[in-house]
Structures are given as structure tokens and as C-alpha cells.
Amino acid sequence: RTAKDKKIFENLIKLDSFKSSSWFYVYVSYGTEADTKNLIEHLFELKKEREIHVAVPKVLGDEMDFFEINLFSELEKGCMGILEPSTGNKVKPENAFMVLPGLAFDEEHKRLGYGGGFYDKYLAAHPKHVTLALCYAFQMLDHLDTDKFDIPVQYVISAPVEEGEA
């Protein structure tokens, strides 16, 4: 898994849209999700070279917003035990590079989340972000049936299946 996370990270940071962004909205990985903690640490390091802002989601009732963080110590367990910001630095940029979680994805970039619809609601209200999801190859399916309010991501970044893997 660690090797797959490394490959996903390497594929992600090669993107031109990643290289040119200054605002990053990134989920904090939880459970079996593709790791984002290394990505967030990388972004903190990039702040030493150029102006970068890192924001992570926080669930507020039935909605979600993003809050800027500068250190992992600014996070605490929140909704469903997922790390969320404990600070109040809510952000509003409309052109962030947004990394979304999910359980499964398909070739049309549709995603199956955890059922709360938090990202779909957020994206419906804030449509100008570059959106992408991170996943392992086994999470990629041929087709997902989704609802009309589900918003596909622009990109899905995965690690290739290695020889001998099922």
C-alpha cells in the first residue's frame, strides 16, 4: 500500500494544474483511503519556496467548508472520526486544486463517496475548482450508477496495476 501511495503521489505532483496552483483543498486520508498526509506535508514544504495555501474540509451540520491549516497539529477528530481543522480560518477561493476522497470511481470520473453528499453540495455551490480524486487501481470500475446531483471529478489519479496483481 505504501508503494501505491507513493506512485499516486508521484503521478499527482506531475500535473501542470498542480504545479501552477497556489490554493489546495485536500481531504485528510482516513481508513483505507489513498494517503494524503504525505501530500499535505509536501505542500507545507512547498510553502517555503512559493506562496501556497492548504485547506482541509470540515463538516458543519449537513454542509462542508474548507479551512486553511499550516500544521497537522491544527487538526482534531471530527465527523466520523476523520481529522478536521480545529481553527477558524475558513477560506473562500474559487479556483483551488481540490483533492476528493471516494470509495469507487469509473471511467467517466464519477465517484462513489460515503453517502453524505458533502462534496457534491460543495461543488454545486463552488464549480470553479480543479477537481481530482485519488484511488487504488481496484477502486476503478467500468461504470457507476450515480444520482443526478452527483458531480464527477475532472481527473482520477491512481497507481497502475503491477504485474502479478489481481
* Biggest sheet character: 6 strands, mixed
Number of strands: 11
The amount of helix comes to 10-25%
Distance between the termini: 14 Å
Q: Which spans have pLDDT < 50 for at least 5 consecutive residues? A: none
Output mean pLDDT. Answer: 91
Radius of gyration: 15 Å
- What's the overall geometry? globular
Summed up:
This protein is globular.
Task: Describe what you observe in this structure.
With 166 residues, this protein is of the alpha/beta class. It is built from four helices and eleven strands, in the order ααβαβββββββαβββ. The longest helix is centred in the N-terminal third of the chain and has 12 residues, at 2-13. The two termini are 14 Å apart. The model has no long low-confidence stretch (mean pLDDT 91).
Features:
166 residues; six-stranded mixed beta sheet; 4 helices; 11 strands
Summarize the topology.
Layout: H1 2-13, H2 16-20, E1 23-26, H3 37-46, E2 53-60, E3 63-69, E4 75-77, E5 83-85, E6 97-100, E7 104-106, E8 111-112, H4 118-125, E9 130-135, E10 140-141, E11 155-158
Parallel strand pairs: 1-2, 1-6, 6-9, 7-10, 9-11
Antiparallel strand pairs: 2-3, 4-5, 7-8
